[in-house]
Design brief:
Length: about 120
Amino acid sequence: MEYIRVGSRERMHGQRELLQSQIEILTILKRYQKYKTLRKQELDMKNAFKRLVSEVQEEMKILDKHLPHVHKAYLQKQDSPREKPTSSASQETKERNDLEMEIRSIKDKLSSLGY
């Protein structure tokens, strides 16, 4: 068996590299432990959120049972499509014409009453 002589510079360099590797391993271990605690908190929060959502769903079911139900015919009547306005300018002129016609009819009624 043969031995290789290691100088003091090489020995110092090797020790430095070994110590730096140990530091990196410890920092990785520290980060992993922090990750585990954060992951546990996340899972706890998710479970709490799921529990709250299921409670709200149960309360919504109870509320739905106690509220009066609307008939489908009434809902369909409200959901029926209404007339679409052609354009805002033509709609404004149409409204003005309707108002003018109403004003004329009211003036005619007043004149027939003698005012």
